[in-house]
Amino acid sequence: MIVLSGILLFSACDEDKGGNPCQSDFDQVSLYANVADNIIIPGYNRLSSELFNLQLANDLFAQNPGLSQLINLRNAFVSAYTQWQWVAQFEFGPAEQQMLRSRFNNFPVNAQEVEAKVQLGDFSLNNPDTYDKGFPALDYLLYGIAETDNQILNLLSNPGQMGYQNYISAIIEDMEQRSLAVLKAWQEEGYRESFIENTGTAAGASLSLLINNLNAHYEIIKRDKIGIPSGVTTLGITFPEKVEGFYSGLSLSLAEEALKAAEGLYRGRNTQSGADGPGLDDYLQAVNATKEGQNLSSLIKNQFQKALEALAQAEPPLSTAIESNNEVVVNAYNEITRQLVNLKTDMPSVLCVSITYVDNASDSD
Amino acid sequence: MQQYNHPTSWKLPTKPVSIAPLITFRILFGGLMMVGAVRFMLSGWVERLYVEPRFFFKFYGFEWVEPLGQTGMYVLYSLIAISAAMVMFGLFYRMAAVIFFLSFTYSELIDLTNYLNHYYLVCLLAFLMIFLPAHRRFSLDTWRRPELSVTHVPSWVIQILMLQVGLVYFFAGYAKLNPDWLFRAMPLAVWLPAKAHWPLLGPLFEQPWLAYAFSWAGALYDLTIPCWLLWRPSRPFAYLAVVVFHLLTKLLFNIGLFPFIMIFNTLIFFPAAFHERLLGRIGYRTDNEQVLYKFPTAGSQLLRPALIFYFSFQLLFPLRYLFYPGEVLWTEQGYRFSWRVMLVEKTGQATFFVHDPTTGHSAEVENRRYLTAYQEKQMAIQPDLILQYAHFLEREYRREYGLESVKITVDCFVALNGRASRRFIDPEAGLTQLKDGFRNKGWILPNEEMGLSDSSRLTVTSQ
Predict the structure, then answer these.
(1) What are phi and psi of B74, to 5 degrees?
(2) What is the pLDDT at residue A265?
(3) CB pairs under 8 A between A and B
(4) Distance from C-alpha of A41 to C-alpha of A187, rounded to nearest angstrom
(5) pTM of the prediction?
(6) Strand ranges (DSSP E) for A61-177?
(7) What digits encode the pLDDT tens for the residues B363-398?
(8) Phi and psi at residue A351, in whole multiples of 5°?
(9) Burial class (CB within 10 angstroms; exposed 0-12, middle 13-18, buried 19+) of A97
(10) Which has the closest alpha carbon to B28: B88, B93, B104, B77?
(11) Which fold has domain A196-350?
């Protein structure tokens, strides 16, 4: 009764008010289609082929262990690890099911744990809470098990000790299968379609999946890749050995790639052509989002630039930069951090994404 | 109700009325609370809310309340469930009512981040129930001791419950008279489209006008429903509205037992005959001979001033926000215990920094080391919790790192009702130097975007 009278009362005058800040004509489907077809699916496609190459290189090395085969194997590793950074932010749906993030990139690696597994011949890769598998384990196995390349080569090719070899093969095979499973789910099993059709602002809708996972990814860049190693949480005590890809020295470029991937998702940038498509930036534009008088869409765009520039100031490898010139790293950390509130608090708020936790601890009122 | 304005000449309305409405109230309240406590235990909330957290946010003045450990908390919740059942059956009623009030209130005082208005309402009703003769008919106590049985109570016994429930509605409606609710349909404009996947009604929830319709209807409902319930011709329709309104909120939002509390409570507005018929179905018998409940003379002396004090508090405490500058939805000064329900979609990010003056080093705090996700979310939007947490961090860093004097600051940003975020707390403020209290917290930064706040305050004071 009262509800009805309210409807009658207001249906007359809502036209000119236009005050509902959650209204917009933005075409969500075009955003999701662009992200799925030009970012996510090509991303897993490329990851799968990089992992396939990695497996080939590993087979070649196994058949004929030599320094050039080791370098070949390491190069394939670098390409695959780099490509991982571009899909790490899509840990929902098929990737979440496969637990890609914890299987592929729990870092810093626990070297003792890896050694123990090699010694025991225990190649189980199922525990999401251990730091003994995925790229970080390969990073250790291909670069860190001994001082020099020749010593590493000797250990890896020792016919009496096949543990290293076998563990490397097991890890690569597991990752390849999982990457393919995710790709297949997107391409053939209809996840792409359900993702594109999952419009709206509810928790669990594609918009909320993208924003939440972009943020989870971004926080990993901030905290795990840069923050913890550079000692921002520990009163100046640094942990250079906790960087991602410590043994290969890849850390800085991996962080850069991850940051570029976040920016690419935000801008809806086609990963193959580099052309800008419908992205979160366009969505923010469509709702005329402002933050303290400034255009939020460009504010975020600019902050990505600043963060990337600040990160580029550091000299690779990151672990050395932390030891020799940590101010530059901390500065990059601060620029990266400045963006977090834009992505994590502002974007969901102005796009009216319901942030209510699905898994609420209790009632609310 | 006119005489409420003249407390000196005012006497408690003592007209004898049937005890039946109070009996219904006792049974439904006790029963619901028992179900609530059992549900709480079965949902695993004891662990999640009282065992898992490392740190518990205290209520001002109740810093001594501590969690009781897993076993202790289960004992406490069992006590709540058992005493609620005893209230329902009217068994050793006074003792049960006291135990229920104390145990329930204790559990709610353990961690402020769990504060909910409807838990506060339960505490208040439980408190009032202690003093009401709700066991004096159709109870195990009167079965044990038939001489306790009465048929009538002074009318104020029923009326104070009406007044309490009416105040909740009124203030809930009053709080909705803010520009965000009325002119931006916030936060319903965020919450309703989240239900767009519902069958049949789903597409409706995406209609922009619906959020306005619900906002205005909701405000109108809360402000006026006590009147419609009091007025006999409109009462059946009003109660239908109560049921529809609360069931709708139950379906739309995650608000637990609150809808049932209100659906049950509002029955108190119905006349005795209704309750006698209702209770008659489960064996309640009316007597021809009228036996009036008499309050003990010693207690009745105190009754009037106690009730005046209680309801003055209920009337004035929700208005304390008027003494603070800025918009209450933003600053949250005077927000709690004021029936501000469902008014904000608010998220924040609070990053704390611990500065060590001796070395010049500083550290960013990882909140998740100390707080659950839910606690962190609540803390980041409430200034007093931010302050409490900073004091906890000071102790923690002293204990863990041996830092004797640290400065703690916070980078805190809050987004409210569909706006972009703004800085919430003065980033220079040394939080450990500050004390919590009722004085204005000058270190909360103002939010000019909340606009209209001045004009809305004017309408408030002119009412």
Answers:
(1) -65, -35
(2) 98
(3) 185
(4) 7
(5) 0.91
(6) none
(7) 999 999 999 999 999 999 999 999 999 999 999 999
(8) -90, 5
(9) middle
(10) B88
(11) A middle domain of Talin 1 (1.20.1420)
Same domain, B288 and B334: no
Residues B139-160 have pLDDT tens digits of: 999 999 999 999 999 999 999 9
- Indicate the helix (H) or strand (E) that contains B411: strand B407-416
Closest CA to A286 of A274, A295, A294: A295
Token representation of residue A134? 């995925």
- Dihedral Cα A177, A180, A182, A188, nearest 10 deg: -140
Provide, as residue numbers in chain A, all residues whose Cβ is less than 8 Å from the Cβ of B421: 291, 341, 345-346, 349
- Please tell me which residue of chain A has the smallest CA distance to B196: A200
ipTM metric = 0.90
Q: Does domain A28-194 have CATH number 1.20.1420.20?
A: yes
| B242 and B338 belong to one structural domain | no
Q: Judge whether B193 lies within some domain.
A: yes
What token pair was written down for B178? 């803010």
Cβ within 8 Å of residue A340, ≥6 positions away:
A215, A218, A219, A222, B349
Beta bridge pairs of residue B451: none
Contact between A174 and A144 under an 8 Å Cβ cutoff? The reply is no
Q: Which of residues 224-263 of A touch B (CB under 8 A)?
A: 227, 232-236
The CA distance from B201 to B215, in Å, is: 18
CA distances from B174 to A217, A336, B227 (A): 42, 43, 15
Residue B217, chain A, CB below 8 Å: the answer is yes
Q: How far is A332 from chain B (nearest CA, A)?
A: 15
Question: B405: how many CB neighbours lie within 10 A of its CB?
Answer: 11
Q: Would the CB atoms of A345 and B413 count as touching at under 8 Å?
A: yes
Q: Which domain holds residue B203?
A: 17-294
Q: What's the pLDDT score for residue A119?
A: 92
When CB atoms are compared, the residue of B186, B208, B255 closest to A365 is B255
Alpha helices by DSSP H, B289-447: 297-316, 328-331, 373-379, 383-401
Backbone dihedral angles phi then psi of residue B411, each to the nearest 5 degrees? -100, 105
